Amino acid sequence: MKHGNESVVRIEGLIEEGEAFRQLSAEPRRRYFDVIVIGGGQAGLSVGYYLKKLGLNFVILDASARIGDAWRKRWDSLRLFTPARYNGLDGMPFPGSPYEFPTKDEMADYLERYAAHFQLPVKNGVRVDRLSREGDRYLVKAGALELEAAHVVVAMASYQGRKVPGFAKELSPEIVQLHSSEYKGLSQLKPGGVLLVGAANSGAEIAMETVAGGHPTWISGRDPGQVPFPIGKRWVHLFILPLLFRVVFHRILTVNTPMGRKVRARMLSAGSPRIRQRRNDLVQAGVQWVGRTAGAKDGRPVLADGRPLDVQNVIWCTGYDRGLSWIDLPIFEDNGEPRHRSGLVESEPGLYFVGQHFQHAMSSTMIQGVGRDASRMVKVIRERCAKRGVTNKFPDFGEPLSAWWRSLLLLRR
Predict the structure, then answer these.
(1) What is the pLDDT of residues 108-118, one digit of tens each?
(2) Which CATH code, of 2.40.128.110, 3.50.50.60, 1.20.1250.20, 3.40.50.2300, is assigned to 2-160+321-408?
(3) Which end of the chain has fewer CB atoms within 10 angstroms, the N or the C?
(4) Can you tell me the distance from the alpha carbon of 255 to that of 262, in angstroms, rounded to the nearest whole number?
(5) What top-level class would CATH report for the domain 166-226+273-316?
(6) Residue 304 pLDDT more than 80?
(7) C-alpha dihedral over 323, 326, 332, 333, to 10 degrees?
(8) Are strands 58-62 and 30-38 parallel, antiparallel or unpaired?
(9) What distance in Å separates the CA atoms of residue 240 and residue 68, rounded to the nearest whole number?
């Protein structure tokens, strides 16, 4: 059924907004689990899929009111950068044409159906405030709730808190300022010029929308480059994307190869190349490329060459911080990145990551790659639980390959 323009999926068994928190609140203040998964997006659901096979007592905590809300809250016209054939999680293919690029709402609804299909214990409306250790177990606090487990999986992407430069507060209050995570559509903007600060995927996608909507549009910042082919072409789908997604991103560009480690370091500091929007297409559409936005003067944004821009709107496509300050454990590098080996935190046995940017491979933050990392972490949990005698009979699940790769008998994960 639909309410306005929003497609609402009604699935029996899913807990409505706030009900999960009320249910947890009505139970004893401290609850005990074998595994707690923090994050209910594609990473957390992938972990839940594999945990379900083990028969362990686990819960998936998610701050959103509804499964898939992280996708629903992006800008209205957003489509995924990968076609549907690469957007299914393990055990359930993505519906529809394999060559279409799904909308963000279609992705959100798919995640909701996935959780219902596998009856995953997702508790929405529960925001974790602190993760710490008590003896040989971990304590998760969410408001008045306390949850305890021997294993905790932080299943969140690296894109959490919004990053905006300090000089943003020096811009005139008459200028509309939005972070890319807040932008929904043209109706939020004032008539007049738009400055997109950040020239990667989000900046380029929104720039194409604003210039098509009649706004003079500037895009500012270092050009991170672009993939060297148009991803919408059928020949690219047939011949290039399988090689790129399943071999290059999945098996070559990993932390185990010199090339992968070099690319990882660059991407963590400089960002990813544009996937859909090419520079020439942006220029032909009327988007004006300018240098770095360096500050503000007289309430207007100023470029590195000293030129002010008289715009009425600024959209900050300047990225995110990791949003992991609630983890009260000594696991962070000086730059704030969590210290782990492909998701395993060796200094904290029982703590794991899934969904981090380039966690094991370039595919780690892609929907088509997150399942491998989830499977690996759950395998470690299975082995550790077996040693502790939690259960002595676990199924021996492998890391699934698509039928296409299985038929070719190519590399196992």
Answers:
(1) 999 999 999 99
(2) 3.50.50.60
(3) N
(4) 9
(5) alpha beta
(6) yes
(7) 40
(8) parallel
(9) 29
